[in-house]
Amino acid sequence: MHTHPSTLPASSDSDDDSTATPPRDTVLPPKEYSFKLPTCWSDQDRHSLLNVSLNGRELSYQGTSCGDKDAAAARTIHPIPPACGIYYYEVEILGKEHKSHISIGLAGHGVKFSRLPGWEPNSWGYHGDDGCSFAAEKNGTSYGPTYAGDIIGCGIDFTTRRAFFTKNGSFIGAVFENVGKDIDLYPSVGLQHAGEIIRVNFGHEPFKFDIDSHVQQQRSAVWNNILATPIDPSVLEGRSMSTTGKTTLSDEQSKGVLNKLVLTYLVHHGYAKTVRAFQKQQPDVLAAKDPDIVMDDTVAETGGMDEDIKCRTRIVNSVITGDIDSAIAETKKHHPVVLESENHLMLFKLRCRKFVELILETTEMKKRIKSLKETRAEKRHYDEIGNGNGEFWMDEEMGMDVDDDAVGLMSTSPTTIPYNTQPLRNGREKAVSPDGEAKDLSSVDAAAQYEMALNTAIAYGQELSNDYKSDTRPEVRQLFKQTFGIVAWEDPLEAGGSVASVVSYEARVNLANELNQAILKSQGRPTRPALEMLYRQTAACLLQLGTMGVGEAAFADISREILES
Amino acid sequence: MPPKSSIRAEEWDRRLHDVQITKNDLNRLIMDYLVIEGYKSAAEEFSQEANLAPPVDFESIESRMDIREALQRGDVEDAIIRVNDLNPEILDTNPALYFRLQQQKLIELIRLGRISEALEFAQEELAPRGEESPEFLSELERTMSLLAFEASAAAPAGISELLSPAQRMKTAGEVNAAILESLSQGNEVKLVGLLKLLCWGEMLLEERAEFRKLNVVEGSLVDSVHV
Questions:
Q1: What does A211-253 look like in DSSP terms, one character per residue?
Q2: Which of A133, A414, A419, B163 could bond A505 through an S-S bridge, CB–CB 3.0 to 4.6 Å?
């Protein structure tokens, strides 16, 4: 949304076709809200005395006479989208070295093409012969220098609804009020003498004027304006703006609101240690003051909530580390409703994940067997050619005698599945490290282990299938299909695509998140923390304002101002 | 103005859902708040728990907080020493801030009833600065008028507020901002910007459309859009 013409190089012919896709290297707003920009003169919306060049950028006057009644104007095909914030274009006067009776400016949809921009209502123009500005007037107002053979820029700032012009890259000044307030605005140029030719630059090439720094200035102006906005307590409570006498939160009160936002966020995501440290550091000044909005219930809540957070965090972490059994057991104990609601949907999802974990274990074992075999083969190879490293292989021989431990070590805890994402692997490398392998496995036992694990997995799957066979909900059927589908892959983790969406580490995290939200919901707590809702609400407001043509919103770029540092 | 359009609750919910925001983004907002507001141990814990790299070294948070606490308990002298220990340039290059601290010191002397000391301090340290700028002078006059009222409660609000905890917080906030700036760290809490952006955005949108409001304090959407 922070685009403006200078960052949107437009191809000159895409304008003719309303369905044309924009040039590939442009930065565009989301598809749903994409805007068409003026990129060339319209061959229809012009006076017949004006000739439009093939590339749509040049206008030349074809008449012979020289008077006001022979004025001829043209405009672009598309109007200017106000959501661009500031729109700017430049016109180079080619035909006239001395005096030019040209008007450069903006016009609404129905303005007559036999009149120069600025003479008629809904049109605004800057005239070359006298340097005057015209806004629906016959006699202009003194504004800037005259021009001929120069490059003239015309801009419209939708945040202020004022226009501005430049001459050869120099800013002349802001002019006009309420430009195009309730109408579509088009770039428009009028000529009236033979031999007058202009060429327009709608962002096809760099502008003479430094529009970027101009935009930057306006952006800061809007942002400063926002920062000067008082924080209205009734807005924060979701009521309409207080109409009688504006109230503002005091510094202390807004601090109270912020603390609450932070605290509820930390609690929501189970950052228990941070919560404790944060609460300890609350200065007494704050705790004592602001009886209204501040810490009151939150502090009290979190006192008793401590155990609750810990429990929820434990459950979430169990899912994240793949220990589904613990997650199910503890959820069943503390939040049975969560598993039962929606006909045991959450329980179903967890059990599906458990099946995934079991299958992943088996593929992991298979991989180990395979690599063991390969090592053996290599070893034989080395022995044959008499090149073996005795010491190294001795190690392995010794290891192979130690079979008894293998059983214990092979009943792998789920965390041994080697996701490529780091968080899982802390301190668990041992079970999969090469020399661990060598010690723990003999090929026969490994195969038996594998067989056993596979049987366990299949049995679990069959039980799951049996338990849910009468559940015909599409969601259940779909997840079921996807979950069992992973068996078809030798290494589901490598499979990518829809398989990855079931088996990946991210899938675990998503499931953990879903479970967290379900628990919170069952406790009557919001499923999203207030802070997140605040961000979402703000972003949605700004987007809506942008689509309604409120220019300032284009410069209130939430992710740029709030998220990027 | 054209009639207000109305955005149905389900449609609004869908839009809220479609907003792109990640947990990591929000975590960074939290960290920004903890650091700037000086919650050192919370910032440390959070860095661990959320697996987030700290944006500043945590010791600098602590010294900033010591300075703030000194100001909040009225020990301006101690605060000045600590600021200079941290970086002497902060006060050298910022006469307005130095004046603010001196003014706070004068306020504290008056609060303690050390009148002759206060007068001496004002004449020696503050009056010469008052000559430098009309703004300083007017602030000095405002502060001195505290002496005209026997009990601060009798003073007009514009004057008695100098004795309020809010005044200490204000001074402490200015010093905090100056230190953060010297560390080339942002000195505006991003969350405050976000709250203001919401107020600004809802205010503009309210003129044009009916939409579902958010109760920020509760973190829940308001059911009825009508007032």
A1: HHHHHHHHHHHHHHHHHTS---HHHHTTPPPP-SS-----HHH
A2: A419
